[in-house]
Design goal:
Length: 190
């Protein structure tokens, strides 16, 4: 009997804690491949975020050149231009450094030894990080600056409403479980 109440209490506690746990999301740097097959690229368009790495893999028995004209001057000799010569089964790797690579569309040119050219498009999204708490909460910092966030009060009210609703739901569930348990015990004694 005591173990049943403990299990119920544990279940309700976990349910309540999961309702008030903060949500977070993050991403790390990814490596995105473009595979140069015999006569085509797979894929020929990729979506990336600044700080990702792009690798162009040569899977055919051909020598290829991979180029990205970073500064747009057509020379492929700039500091951030990409220029790799690949034999079969080699790859060319370049990092989308947020300090240099801006959000937008970039073209990767892959030239085969016979002179034919294939193009891949990289759609780069900005890597945006929000520092600090957007609701204005500061832990352990005495700062006189106020952070103004549009809609902050309404989102805080929404979170409070969710927390109150979760707490009331958990309490009602606990009372219901205890009443059902007492009813079943009363029936057994009769």
């Amino acid at each position: 009997m005591a173990s049943g109440r403990f299990g119920t209490l544990l279940f309700v506690s976990i349910l309540l804690l999961s309702g008030v746990a903060p949500l977070a999301s993050a991403h790390g740097a990814n490596t995105i491949w473009i595979i140069a097959r015999g006569t085509y690229l797979q894929p020929d368009e990729i979506d990336a975020i600044q700080n990702d790495t792009v690798e162009v893999h040569n899977s055919a028995e051909l020598n290829r050149t991979v180029r990205v004209d970073f500064d747009g001057d057509g020379l492929y000799n700039g500091t951030h231009d990409v220029h790799c010569n690949l034999n079969s089964s080699e790859f060319c790797s370049f990092w989308l450094d947020p300090a240099n690579w801006t959000a937008g569309q970039w073209e990767v040119e892959i030239i085969e030894e016979n002179g034919s050219t294939m193009y891949a498009t990289i759609n780069i999204q900005a890597d945006i990080h929000v520092t600090g708490n957007p609701l204005g909460y500061q832990f352990g910092i005495n700062d006189d600056e106020e952070i103004e966030v549009e809609g902050g009060a309404s989102s805080q009210n929404w979170l409070q409403l969710v927390a109150i609703t979760s707490g009331l739901g958990g309490a009602l569930l606990l009372v219901n479980l205890m009443n059902n348990r007492n009813d079943s015990l009363g029936r057994e004694e009769e």
